[in-house]
Amino acid sequence: MCEVLGVSRAGFYRWLSRSPSPRATEREHLLGFLLAEAKRQSSVPGYRKLWQAAVNAGFACGKNRVQRLLQRAGYRSVRALRPGYRRPKPGLPALPNLLNREFEVSKPNQVWVSDITQVRCDEGWWYLAIVMDLYSRRIVGWADGPVNDSYLVERALEAAWDTRQPSGGGMLFHSDQGAQYRSEAVMRWLTKRGVTLSMSRRGNCWDNACAESFFAQLKVEWLQCLGRQSRDELRAEAQYYIEEYYDDVRLHGALGGVSPRTYEAAA
């Protein structure tokens, strides 16, 4: 690795064992205080009130710095509007609804659908992006994190691609009109692999009903009874639900009463 990067071995080990800089240490202390104060107040205050609390506690910091730290940590006040209710940032134009609610698919890797959901957690919000193969309703890729952006979708797509190894040509990928899916990075990622893109009509959640239904099942059947959890705990629960229960055990009426993995194996 050192040879590839053009770094000396001694320099690498010095970097590996170096102590955090005073600036990094100060940043960690400030973020720790902000998150502890937010938790003490049940995630009610926004970044302005948390900045004021930090100043009152003796920290020398600005509002913008506090806002950046909290955004990177994925913190959101309970008073803030859910991201879905905000006007999305401008992106590439929305594409037509080529799927047209044709949810019955004859073979694997012909149509993939995707969506993102958010769940309130101890640290703020936790986001989950999934990619579903409509043929078997199997979740072929997923990714989670504290930030709802195009990189979250890219990671879910990469996981799905590694799992299925599709040819790409002739595949349809359907999503809603979220800014993450209309981003240049995601559209480039898909078109580079020869995938045709389709998007739900504005305000028509039924155009992506299968992905929406999965999130409803995840929350009602699994997460609802767990109460407020940390992001790490939610990640572990989602992994178990998707990979151990949903794909292997849960019976689907649309598949004739078998699990997605069993349906694929019998095909």
From TrEMBL:
Protein name (Swiss-Prot/TrEMBL): Putative transposase
Domain of life: Bacteria
Residue ranges annotated for the Integrase catalytic domain, each copy included: 104-267
Pfam families, per database record: rve, rve_2
One of the GO BP terms on file: DNA integration
GO function terms (MF aspect): nucleic acid binding
InterPro entries (alphabetical): Integrase_cat-core, RNaseH-like_sf, RNaseH_sf, Transpos_IS3, Transposase_IS3/IS150/IS904
